[in-house]
Design brief:
The structure holds 2 protein chains of 2 kinds.
Chain A (H helix, E strand, L loop, with lengths): L1 E3 L3 E2 L2 H12 L4 E8 L2 E8 L2 E8 L4 E3 L9 H11 L2 E3 L15 E2 L6 E2 L16 E6 L11 E7 L2 E8 L7 H5 L4 H9 L6 H16 L5 H29 L3 H22 L8 E2 L2 E2 L7 H25 L1 H7 L7 H7 L3 H5 L8 H5 L18 H25 L16 E8 L4 E8 L5 E7 L6 H7 L8 H8 L4 H4 L1
Parallel strand pairs in A: 2-5, 6-7
Antiparallel strand pairs in A: 1-15, 3-4, 4-5, 8-9, 10-11, 11-12, 13-14, 15-16, 16-17
Chain B lengths: L1 H9 L12 H8 L4 H7 L3 E7 L5 H8 L12 E3 L8 E5 L2 E2 H13 L5 E5 L1 H5 L9 E3 L9 E3 L6 H19 L3
Parallel strand pairs in B: 1-2, 1-3, 3-5, 5-7
Antiparallel strand pairs in B: 4-6
Helix pairs in contact in B: 2-7, 3-7
Classes of the chains: A alpha+beta, B alpha/beta.
């Protein structure tokens, strides 16, 4: 979904009214981010997106998190990056700023950093409780973050995450960047979702400058997005089983993942399709033998994958680990607006490809699987069914791939321009807001990963589970660190 | 399960021949690795991967090294969970200021002799993230680096070429180089 922003600057009363609607579950929080002298809040009602702006006259704004917990981390991040204070917030500790930068409030009124104040984790009190600190450097080949467990014997009583270790200052590098530089940064926000991020950034820019992308590019973008979804889902399904010590599945889905990446390489010249989507279209056309490489991949998956699913479903020892483990309750998924397989495994029937929707998905047929159980098993099954849907989509894309140009020029067309895009990455919806200055350079670009509304649910889902099931639960969420930390 | 297993037995392996070690990498290594270390480590290396700020792209390709096509372990290379067990630190990402101390501590926790291999365009000099208030720079700006494997991200084949160069370099010297 893309839109040219009719952004509304609101009064305190209107802002608080929006918070009321959020708290009552009448709309979903899509994003909350800082800007020069103000904060913006994006809301989803049905399939309509509205963006409200509150001017922080004295450096403060009424807290959304006070009544709607999904906003708390976003407000903490605004505090650390811009210095605006959310009045009434229940949690004012820093977020992303771990005390290692030379500056405070790097995106706002900067000031030199002083000695960091010690970070206080939330308390958990009781006899025989002990803490297990994990990270930032983990045992596997994964991204860094800190997990603080409080356990009673084997049972997790409380998990608190502390993130920000891979914060690279992307939004500060975006300021003043040319479109080309900015597209490269967007593509490297979360490497596993590079096609989705490039697409979200491109669509936001195209909305801002009111450019229409040629149909062939629209279809090629969707092909990339579905290949990326397939590769990640294969990787995840195998990795989840591997964390339950079922290595056979990991080996088999690893083969499918590799075949998918090779098909991507054959089509677009890069295994992860980095920088393949650019504002205005796509950077290169699909190779002559690309469609046949994809068709061969689809045929191979259709042959092998059903057998692997049967294997997953009929292995009792594996089911014993995944069924009823790490339950994310539907009410939390709804209230946090958790997207992707996390939300859909917990009853939240949302997919940005369908609604608000964007081309070419609006003219393709596909289903959005939804389950209610919210456990590791449900998150595996959502992925399994999404693999099937992606295959169907790829069939349709190859069948209908229009001829013609693959890109149009994108130029600044006078004045300040703003655009917004909401794209369904494999992990969930990515929101990108972009504002271009008169010179066509980026004034402000905000990228909100799906993980912002999934990480907090993991904290709740692990409660009462045993410590040894954490890797399994964590992998079934597979939240992004880099996409979140920016 | 039986069918899948049987088919795996009768079908030839998917594993592809290993690429030759990268010549440029061998040259870079020749300058950095001391002879005693090479002699001691011989034909096998334990690798500890450290994400010091990467976008996760490099991690995906490092993961791929363990799949059936590249099968890293057949070459004497394996990933370990602790820096205490490692000979090689495989470091990705621009080093963020928030990860600087963690990387240093990991480096110090790794026993000598050790190699540091910086993976990816960002690990070389910060890449597209260079100059940010939150980025300390490339890996070499924080810990000594023996080899750079470039690419965004480097493909598994490129990674293998570089890692085999480390292994070859260790091996040659071990046998009277």
């Amino acid at each position: 979904m893309t839109m040219i922003l009719p952004r509304t600057t609101v009064t305190e009363e209107d802002w608080l009214q929006a918070v009321d609607r959020l708290a009552a579950g009448k709309c979903t929080l899509l994003g909350l981010w800082g800007d020069d002298g103000c904060v913006h809040m994006a809301l989803l009602t049905g399939s309509d997106i509205a963006v409200l702006t509150y001017v922080c006259k004295v450096g403060t704004y009424p807290s959304v998190g006070a009544r709607h917990p999904a906003a708390i981390r976003l407000e903490r991040a605004i505090g650390s990056l811009f210095g605006f204070e959310a009045v009434g917030s229940p949690d004012t500790r820093p977020w992303l700023d771990l005390g290692f930068w030379d500056v405070k409030r790097p995106l706002g009124a900067q000031k030199p950093a002083r000695e960091p104040t010690p970070y206080t984790f939330l308390p958990a009190e009781g006899e025989a409780l002990h803490q297990i600190p994990v990270g930032p450097v983990h045992a596997g080949i994964i991204e860094p973050g800190h997990f603080r467990f409080t356990a009673n014997g084997e049972h997790v009583v409380r998990l608190e995450q502390r993130l920000g270790y891979v914060h690279k200052g992307i939004e500060s590098l975006m300021r003043g960047a040319s479109l080309e530089q900015a597209a490269k940064l967007a593509a490297r926000t979360s490497g596993d979702s590079t096609a989705a991020y490039s697409l979200a950034f491109a669509q936001a820019v195209e909305a801002a400058v009111e450019v229409k992308v040629p149909p062939r590019a629209v279809y090629l973008r969707a092909l990339m997005a579905e290949l990326e979804r397939l590769a990640n889902h294969f990787g995840d399904i195998g990795a989840i089983c591997n964390d339950a010590s079922f290595a056979l599945m990991h080996a088999q889905t690893g083969i499918l993942r590799e075949r998918t990446l090779r098909a991507a390489q054959a089509c677009f010249g890069h295994r992860l399709m980095m920088d393949a989507v650019v504002p205005g279209g796509v950077a290169r056309d699909i190779a002559a033998d690309g469609p046949s490489a994809v068709a061969a991949l689809v045929a191979e998956v259709r042959k092998v994958f059903p057998r692997l699913i049967e294997l997953y479903d009929s292995t009792a020892s594996l089911q014993d680990r995944t069924v009823t483990t790490g339950i994310a309750k539907p009410e939390y998924a709804k209230s946090f607006g958790a997207g992707g397989y996390v939300g859909r495994a917990s009853g939240r029937d949302f997919d940005a490809r369908r609604a608000p929707g964007y081309a070419p998905y609006t003219e393709l047929s596909f289903e959005v699987p939804v389950l209610q159980d919210g456990d590791v098993n449900a998150r595996v099954w959502i992925r399994i069914r999404e693999v099937d849907e992606s295959l169907k989509l790829i069939d349709q894309i190859l069948e209908r791939l229009p001829a013609g140009a693959i890109a149009v020029p994108v130029e600044a067309n006078g004045g300040t321009r703003e655009g917004l895009a909401l794209i369904e990455a494999f992990r969930g919806d990515v929101l990108v807001y972009v504002r271009l200055g008169e010179d066509g350079r980026i004034e402000r670009c905000h990228l909100r990963d799906a993980s912002w509304f999934q990480w907090p649910l993991l904290e709740v889902a692990i409660e009462g589970n045993i410590v040894a099931d954490f890797p399994l639960c964590n992998k079934s969420f597979n939240c992004s660190y880099s996409g979140h930390d920016l | 399960m039986r069918k899948t297993l049987l088919e795996s037995l009768t079908r030839g392996p998917l594993t592809e021949p290993a690429p030759p070690p990268d010549q440029a990498a061998l040259a870079e290594l020749a300058q950095s690795v001391d002879r005693a270390a090479r002699a001691r480590l011989g034909r096998s290396l334990s690798i500890r991967e450290v994400d010091a700020g990467s976008c996760n792209g490099c991690e995906l390709e490092i993961h791929a090294l363990s799949n059936a096509f590249y099968d890293l372990e057949r070459l004497g290379l394996r990933f370990v969970a602790s820096p205490r067990h490692a000979d090689v630190l495989l470091v990705t990402g621009p080093v963020t200021k928030n990860m600087r101390e963690a990387l240093l501590r990991t480096y110090n926790a790794t026993p000598d002799p050790k190699w540091v291999v910086a993976v990816g365009a960002c690990a070389a000099d910060g890449g597209v993230f260079a100059g940010s208030y939150a980025v300390a720079g490339g890996v070499k700006d924080v810990v000594p680096v023996d080899l750079h494997i470039r690419g965004c991200p480097p493909s598994p084949t490129e990674l293998l070429k570089g890692l085999l160069a480390v292994l070859t370099s260790a091996n040659e010297k071990a046998h009277g180089g």
